[in-house]
Amino acid sequence: MLQKARNFSLAYIPPPIPRALLLGDGDGRLALELLKHSPNCSIVSIDSSEGMIEEANRRLEQHFGKVPENFRPACADALTCDFTLDSFDYIGLHFFLDCFSDDEAAQLIHRCSRALRPGGVISYADFQIPEKQPQRIIGKALVDSLYWAFRMTTNLQTKQLPKVQWPEALQAHATQSFLGGILRSEVLTKPST
């Protein structure tokens, strides 16, 4: 289900995608799907874990026989990286914003919105806690246990999902819920000027 949530946006984006930014793609699952969807896409993939970047490189090498030259990973902190204004056609934020506080997530969303070219797409997928029972109880228990596990294994300080608010400059294009509303995917577009 996590992979379906990641890949949801690809059905709404016709190739080619010239330039993409992936934040926290981890082991490269989305990078692989994006390169299968749009083989000439130039991908900048930022992750704070050197181990995850190595996993992404292995995944791409296993599929393509070598790491494609148009895949450029960087081990860096997304909060401090420079995202050039209007430079990406696609930005992937999948299971990533949940690592940040409300203020940090808002800062990243603002910076991503500015880095997106007019006509570009932001693809977002993450956990959410549904409003209705019994999914609410299940969702809360799942999210709480995931945060506990990540605190133990990665020293993650965040303890709850951030409030994700998209700027007015972005328009909702498509949404999909999975697992009774515990997972949510969104495709947002920046109108062409």
Largest sheet, described in full? 7 strands, mixed
How would you state the average pLDDT, rounded? 92
* CATH fold descriptor: Rossmann fold
Helix content: 25-40%
Counting helices, strands and paired strands, the structural category is alpha/beta
CATH class category label: Alpha Beta
Residues in β-strands, percent: 25-35%
Number of domains: 1
* Number of helical elements: 5
- Could you say which overall geometry the principal axes of the C-alpha atoms support? globular
- Reading the helices and strands in chain order gives HEHEHEEHEHEE
Number of extended strands: 7
**CATH homologous superfamily heading:** Vaccinia Virus protein VP39
CATH architecture: 3-Layer(aba) Sandwich
Major β-sheet strand ordering:
3-2-1-4-5-7-6
Quick take:
This protein has helices at 2-7, 29-37, 50-64, 102-115, 135-154, and strands at 19-23, 42-47, 71-75, 88-94, 116-127, 171-178, 183-189.
Tell me about this structure.
The protein has about 190 residues and is of the alpha/beta class. It has one domain: Vaccinia Virus protein VP39 (Rossmann fold, 3-Layer(aba) Sandwich). It is built from 5 helices and 7 strands. A 7-stranded mixed sheet has the order 3-2-1-4-5-7-6. Helix 3 links the parallel strand 2 and strand 3. The longest helix has 20 residues. It is globular, with a radius of gyration of 16 Å. The N and C termini lie far apart (about 35 Å).
